[in-house]
Amino acid sequence: MKSIVLFFSLLIFVSHSNAQNNVQEICGYKTELERVVKRQPNYLIYQNALFEQAMQEFNSLSTAKRRIEADTLYFEIPVVFHVLYNKTAENLNDTCIYSQLRELNNAFRKRNKDTSRIRAIFKPIAADVKIQFVLATTDPQGNATSGITRTYTNKTTFAANQFGTYTTNMKYSANGGKDAWDPTSYLNFWICNMEFPNYIGIVYGFATPPTNAPNWNGTGATKDTNSMESGVVLHYKIVGRSNPLAPVKYNEGKSAIHEVGHYLGLRHVWGDGNNTTGCTVDDGIFDTPNCKAQNATCMGQNSCTDASNDKPDQTENYMDYALDGCAGMYTQQQAFMMRFVLNKLRTGLPYRIIKYDTIAEPAAPVSGFKIYPNPLQEGNNFNVQISGQNNEYFATSIIDATGKEVYQRSLMANKVHSIETSGLAQAIYFIVVRNSEGKIVYREKLLIL
Asked: What is the pTM (predicted TM-score) of this model?
């Protein structure tokens, strides 16, 4: 593993002044990091310690005898979109915001059609992050809300100059913006104009990753999780899929996906190196191949040669710059890191939703459990047989796709039991069998046609 830094402030910056074929330096991370380290010399030490803790937990869970059951636990994060507008075009309609929320959920739950872009070599590690985003239904005062606020501002732009530098005025009502809702309970998005007149560069988005690492000395190096500046800022033209105002290559809503990755603790996949030193630094995530610098195309070159298990640059990763038109995945370890951040740092932010039994011993061999016919026609009965000791009973449940138990019955071992399905609609179900200790010993999908 190369040198690592886990958390940092991020901005996406696009320059329009350079016609070279080389990829633009479109992120201000290096400048920001130098500023942070000058203020807090121990910044890298503490962030590396947190990352090591995360990797130890990942390895421990990977080898544990007890494991998290698939598809049983996910995180749900309430979000609020603060729309700031000076001109009518900046006041994006609800449809555009709903589209962005849908793109976020499709990406984080691996439900997007863009997964077809993932090359075969990376498909096995493409992850369902198990994080979902929902519009807030109550505001901090307990009042009903749509999860969208709209505020007229006298600011024509929140850019500081034509070179892409920006202010944080959009986060303060007193400065022409909108005050954040409690950042420990909501993910705040600010949508505003980040374009400077006659601009050379433009900020499309920036985020505030958390800095409350273990053993932190209390002063903080960037924004703490309870800071009223915590959240994600997006330029209004790149919000949502097929935004009619979007520039070419920024019309799929991927910038928001990238920024939320930073908000939840991820680095760029190239570790923020450059073409000279890039192969000597890394993002610290083992299943993202090392690459020399950011990519802006889907070419898939192999810019760094690893000693073992060498793979090409992962341009389909949301944390590279080859976003709209290329990106379609987070990796398994990136997914773990984002959930680690929710469990360790942003602890009050998500709801933890359990569909059914989260922890269970690995299931016994399938040969001890028979279910037939499977699939079966709607309304027909199916048979179940469970191997065990004579006179041993098993609790058997049928679970639907939402995690709701729709059938429960106690079945004796070594007998054939006929199960009626007259009340079950056409769908995919799970049959879950527990022994007398309540442990899951068998589980299998049931398809009703």
From this structure: 0.70
